[in-house]
Design goal:
Shape: elongated
Oligomer: single chain
Number of strands: 0
Largest sheet: none
Radius of gyration: 21 Å
Mean pLDDT: 89
Helix content: over 70%
Structural class: mainly alpha
Number of helices: 4
Number of domains: 1
Low-confidence stretches: none
Length: 108
């Protein structure tokens, strides 16, 4: 294969996708990921300061988001580190979810 054939095959594989658009979407997703995490952190701190209660629901949501992100990374990269971090976040999510449910039922 010559250079032209390789370029034509690569263009067909991308099916008209704009590389710049894909990179912008990736950057936006990462920035959104961190902004949501920061927002949940702020909500949790304000709840603790104003209402004197810890918002386990917000923490559970944040930990679930991190867990899913690392699960997707593990599926794509097959690195054991990504799976390990996913499991740690998942355990934190389950613990926060249990605390949130106990808080809602006024058991705790």
């Amino acid at each position: 294969m010559n250079k032209e054939e390789i370029l034509n095959l690569a263009k067909e594989d991308n099916k008209g996708l704009d590389v710049a658009d894909l990179e912008a979407q990736k950057s936006a997703s990462v920035i959104g990921y961190y902004v949501v995490a920061l927002g949940i952190l702020i909500v949790t701190i304000v709840d603790k300061l104003v209402l004197d209660k810890f918002n386990f629901g917000a923490v559970a949501s944040c930990l679930l988001m991190f867990s899913v992100a690392f699960l997707v990374k593990y599926i794509k990269l097959r690195k054991k580190h990504e799976l390990f971090v996913c499991i740690i976040y998942l355990i934190g999510f389950i613990a926060s979810l249990i605390c949130w449910i106990l808080e809602l039922t006024r058991v705790w």
